[in-house]
Design a protein that fits this description.
Layout lengths: L7 E2 L2 E2 L7 E11 L6 E2 L6 H14 L18 E2 L2 E5 L15 E5 L4 E5 L2 H14 E4 L4 E13 L5 E7 L7 H13 L4 E5 L29 H12 L4 E5 L9 H4 L18 H15 L18 E5 L7 H4 L1 H9 L4 H18 L3 E5 H7 L8 E4 L6 H6 L3 E4 L17 H5 L9 H4 L2 E8 L9 H5 L2 H10 L7 H17 L26
Parallel strand pairs: 3-5, 4-6, 6-8, 11-12, 11-18, 12-13, 14-15, 15-16, 16-17, 17-18
Antiparallel strand pairs: 1-2, 3-10, 7-8, 7-10, 9-10
Helix pairs in contact: 1-2, 3-4
Length: 522
């Protein structure tokens, strides 16, 4: 089902996230839905053809003719086609620098969508779909407030959601559904926190016993499963950035290969002094990345096609290292403290990724510890309030923001933080304008201790939409009061598309509706 007819409140349409620039009129125009409504050239790339097939269903869920509309509608006074064009037909795996801009124009008798890349077309199709409504009394599709002129582009290039399969296994079908939901809010990154202390679910062919650390033999991912997810995301313009947290949060690695951990009784962090550890890290990164970065028309041969790979590095308790004789001996030989060794591990792992042509992403603690000694290709993923964002940027590093501290946290496992607090988080707060451009974007982080397949969507949505708008729309789009009608409408749209988004106005995330009523009032 589509939403009721789109209304305009104070010249702000019910679009989410709000486009960069737009104008509109005041006329309603009927749409003559048909299998050829979306028109492109015959040699359009696969990404666009796939999107057209999806958006035909999303825009026209009641069938192409919409009941009896053919009996009264004059085709000469209806929109009969959306013409799609683009400058580049290259639909190789999207990367951080992929252009997602588009121009959408809806006139009285024609509509056009133009973008520089296929991925801009995808974002424009989403906007068009949100303009389409359905008149149940007349059984017809329509667009209100014609003519529309929209020129849109994201404020930040990196806009993502993290899922955590180290704490709870998520079936592939759930991960695919999650990717679908990201696209509705113009998010373009799935940060896959693959492993953690509790579980190592992924098949690693060069180290086949690693996934003995999975929760159970059936709660694992074949590499073929991951390839399917990566391709599924690719067709939707979503990058999949995998994370292997190291050297901390790695106890699950010890199940299959105890030699990479300090000892049976003291299992974390990974053994910095063992050649086996470094052989495993090198082989793992080689298998994941293919040893080189993706290039246009020449994708990475590794399992993941993104040029970023997340190496974690957070919350490392080095207490086991000096308590382990072999590691203590290695520390003395190299004149290192345990804290020095933490920095050494983080830098060495990052250098391995860089040598393979990829950019390492590491958590705040790595920068806090190592600072300007880090390679400038390292992306600093900031979640701690005591990490000075401006200093990190001024020192030449690019940043991904989590903003993971109360009361405005983008950590979605904080169920007592509602969407308005999330929305009030401005990524460039206290950052000079000259440095804000080095912020690549940010994430909502869905840590998995208390979420699984049963409640993932209702915990993520609709709060994730608040983050999406702050990362897509211009900085001056920052009023939660003005965004509330659009957020309520977007939540209903998500529900209509099968996304189990929770009510907008609840004080606690994923709470049930307070009683009978329309989704537009909950």
């Amino acid at each position: 089902m589509l939403r009721p007819s789109l209304k305009v409140n104070a010249s702000v349409p019910l679009l989410f996230p709000l486009p960069k620039l737009f104008t509109h009129g005041s006329t309603a125009r009927t749409i003559l839905a048909s299998p050829t409504f979306f028109k492109g050239v015959s040699h359009m790339p696969r990404v666009v053809w796939s999107a057209i097939a999806r958006y035909q269903s999303l825009c026209f869920p009641h069938g192409f003719l919409g009941g009896n509309q053919q009996n009264f509608m004059n085709p000469s006074k209806a929109l009969t086609q959306l013409s799609i064009s683009m400058d580049s037909f290259d639909d190789s795996a999207p990367q951080i620098d992929t252009d997602e801009s588009y121009e959408l124009n809806v006139g009285y008798d024609s509509a056009t969508l133009h973008a520089k890349t296929p991925y801009g077309v995808l974002r424009g199709l989403e906007t068009f779909s949100q303009l389409v409504s359905f008149d149940y009394d007349r059984a017809q599709y329509l667009i209100e407030n014609v003519p529309w002129s929209i020129k849109d582009a994201p404020r930040f290039p990196h806009r993502g959601l993290m899922i955590d399969t180290g704490r709870h296994y998520l079936p592939i079908s759930v991960i695919k559904d999650t990717i679908d939901s990201l696209v509705y809010a113009k998010l373009n990154v799935l940060h896959w926190h693959m492993v953690d202390s509790q579980s190592f679910p992924l098949q690693i062919k060069s180290w086949p016993h690693l996934w003995k650390g999975a929760f159970s033999p059936s709660q694992r991912y074949l590499q073929a499963d991951v390839e399917e997810v990566v391709q599924y995301a690719h067709l939707r313009g979503v990058r999949v950035m995998v994370e292997f947290d190291m050297p901390g949060h790695a106890q699950s690695w010890c199940t299959g290969y105890p030699e990479v951990c300090p000892s049976e009784l003291c299992t974390t962090p990974l053994n910095v002094a063992s050649n086996k550890t470094w052989e495993l890290v090198g082989d793992l990164l080689q298998e994941m990345t293919g040893g080189r970065a993706s290039e246009p028309g020449n994708p990475s041969p590794g399992l993941f096609k993104d040029n970023f790979i997340h190496l974690g590095g957070d919350e490392v308790n080095t207490g086991c290292w000096p308590k382990t004789k072999s590691i203590a001996k290695w520390l003395r030989k190299h004149n290192m403290s345990a804290e020095d060794a933490y920095g050494y591990f983080s830098k060495r792992a990052a250098e391995i990724a860089i040598a393979m042509g990829h950019r390492p992403v590491q958590w705040s603690e790595v920068y806090d510890h190592f600072q300007t000694k880090l390679n400038k290709k390292t992306v600093v993923h900031i979640w701690k309030s005591n990490t000075n964002v401006s200093s990190v940027l001024a020192n030449g590093y690019e940043v991904i923001l989590n903003v993971g501290y109360w009361p405005k946290s983008w950590y979605l496992d904080n169920l007592d933080i509602n969407w308005t607090a999330v929305y009030s988080n401005e990524p460039c707060t206290n950052v000079p304008d000259s440095l804000c451009g080095r912020i690549l974007g940010g994430h909502g982080e869905m840590w998995g201790e208390n979420v699984d397949a049963s409640d993932l969507e209702s915990t993520v949505w609709p709060r994730m939409a608040a983050i999406a708008e702050r990362l897509w729309s211009p900085r001056e789009v920052n009023s939660a009061d003005q965004a509330t009608p659009r957020m309520e409408s977007f939540r209903c749209l998500l529900n209509s598309r099968g996304v189990r988004a929770a009510p907008v106005l609840n004080k606690m995330a994923r709470s049930a509706p307070p009683g009978p009523g329309s989704c537009y009032e909950q």
